[in-house]
Amino acid sequence: MARHQVATHCPYCALQCGTELTDREGAVSVSPSSFPVNRGGLCRKGWTAPEVLGSADRLYEPQLRIGRGELAPVGWEEVLDRIATNLEEIIAESGPDAVGIFGGGGLTNEKAYALGKFARVALGSSRIDYNGRFCMAAAATAGNAAFGVDRGLPFPVTDLGEAEVILLAGGNPAETMPPLMQHLEGARLVVVDPRRSATAERAELHLRPRPGTDLALALGLLHIAVTEGWHDSEYTARRTTGFERTWARAVTWWPERVERVTGVPVSAQRQAVRMLARARSSYVLTGRGAEQHGDGADTVSGFINLALALGLPGTRGSGYGCLTGQGNGQGGREHGQKADQLPGYRSITDPAARAHVAEVWGVAEKALPGPGLPATRLLESAGTPEGIRALLVFGANPVLSAPHAGLARAQLSKLDLLVVADFLPSETTRMADVVLPVTQWAEEEGTMTNLEGRVLRRRALLPPPGSTRSDLDVLRGLATRLGQPESRFPTRPSTVFDELAHASAGGPADYSGIDYERLDSGQALHWPCPKTPDEQVPTPHPGTPRLFLESFAHPDGRARFAAVDWHGPAEDTNHEYPLVATTGRISGHYQTGEQTRRVDELATAEPESFVRLHPDTAARRGVHDGQLARVSSARGATLARARLDDSIRPDTLFLPIHYAGAGCANLLTNPVLDPRSGIPEFKVAAVSISSAEEPSA
């Protein structure tokens, strides 16, 4: 029996668990490897990932919509010609910023890099952003401000296994990344979550703040740390700046005030701080629950302030970190598909960064556009006089993932041209004028960067099926038709990576000392990993698994406290919408569910959207367990199956984000943005709930 096997990584979350893929005459199976992050474990999404490779509705050939008709098959040369001609006409009439690019946090480093280069060089457009703006932007902004660099975990995942206490604010890894839990088993957990999640059930202490009050809680915990003598003043004086201004804000957040605002008892606040401060080794970690707010960056800064006051960051065996969500959420934001960044995590407004990258790309620095629009505003601009007229989407499903999904759909329908490159039909491909079938994870070579900044090799097991092409091939095909030399857009992933590494040299995320040869030899390489001149240092740089042990990345080597304050969510409850809806993930599905809803085991276990609510809330609203319910906000309504849960706050509803159609949770969510990071307020929406009629057969 023919058998082929490769070592690679799971296609889903940012743990990037190590796997072995085996192809036995077309039947692909997966087994976990001893990779340090998962140590031989996988979640059920990882175990069932190969089923997606053979999806019955896989996209195999390009499709073009003629007029208002159905999508019809077409050849590659014809469809690329058509796209390029339309783009040239739009740019000639309205300028390059009339064309937008929307990328994804699951794209390989090579594809994310090429996408940013394509937007800024081939199109000359500043209008590029990606779906990581919906989930990681707040933590990235706060981390850069505090430490001078943003890396989800500035230490290896395995360090968490030695922790005595871990405070986890707004994360639920027991469901979203189960293999991580083996590294948390030895720690006493403090979990901040308005509902009793699977992770909260394992916690020694569960703090249940009202959604939208996480920053008030963080300020209160800092207040207790200082007033009760847990503040590490020697560390603050030696390694930080800005404490006095920050304390001037936190001093007004005494425990009783925090309890009134958040609902978290004073005794629980004090217990949380004492657990962290008394531990020999402790960590503060944040997740989407703390980040997806109109004050998301300030909220993350609040928890970083607490960690700094206790002397945790940059201390071996302790620290602060963020649980990155998407598979390449870390690498995807480092190399140029984010509206304000160039490769190597450089700022697009930095003259030196612009000059360096322009030289690598062989273009004039002044030809590079400036910063663009954050993802939500990019989508909202579609079809407006000063907005985009065309949008190219790679590896994302914004029709479901954007806040106020009804508005996002309405705006995208106004575009002159919507092009979507994907490997499965999605809610976004169904709106597209052109659909381009591209390779997926087991059919392509490349690199990913996991949540600990470790650069990993993705390896192909299968050849591209049908007439599918890689995203790199698509971008070169379009770029050459737009007048670019073929050599400027290589399609060999290792060649693209070498260029990416050169472009990142000297930047915060420096990959210049990494290449495929080192990765394929099994070396564990965390960025920054600069290239060392052979004539001076014959041994290559080993990478940097632990940041900040000697100094932080700011020029003076010190971390920055942030003087933040709580002002409440953008939308408050009222008579018409008296409850608060918050959204999140569940164990059986991933992102918008485009892949996992096609896996029989996962779809059978969680086939439809649901809403968790307290039994008392259900009784007052006339909703029964198992009944179809209508949840409404000022923006729209969604239908979900009621699940009564006496551990959730009576003022709070929880809905998963993975469902389409009438079950789309983002029909409710608020598109207001955090002014610092551009992240939307997914976690707080004023809503009402009522019973709904079952759909007819």
Automatic annotation (TrEMBL):
Query: Which is a Pfam family this sequence falls into?
Result: Molybdop_Fe4S4
Residue span(s) of domain 4Fe-4S Mo/W bis-MGD-type: 3-55
Which SMART domains would you find in this protein's record?
Molybdop_Fe4S4
An example GO CC term for this entry is: membrane
Q: Which UniProt keywords apply?
A: 4Fe-4S, Iron, Iron-sulfur, Metal-binding
- Coiled-coil residue windows: none
Which GO molecular function annotations are given, in alphabetical order?
4 iron, 4 sulfur cluster binding; metal ion binding; molybdopterin cofactor binding; NADH dehydrogenase activity
- Example GO BP: respiratory electron transport chain
The protein's superkingdom reads: Bacteria
Q: Which InterPro entries match?
A: Asp_de-COase-like_dom_sf, MoPterin_dinucl-bd_dom, Mopterin_OxRdtase, Mopterin_OxRdtase_4Fe-4S_dom, Prok_molybdopt-oxidoreductase
Q: What is this protein called?
A: Assimilatory nitrate reductase catalytic subunit
Query: What organism is this sequence from?
Result: Actinopolyspora righensis
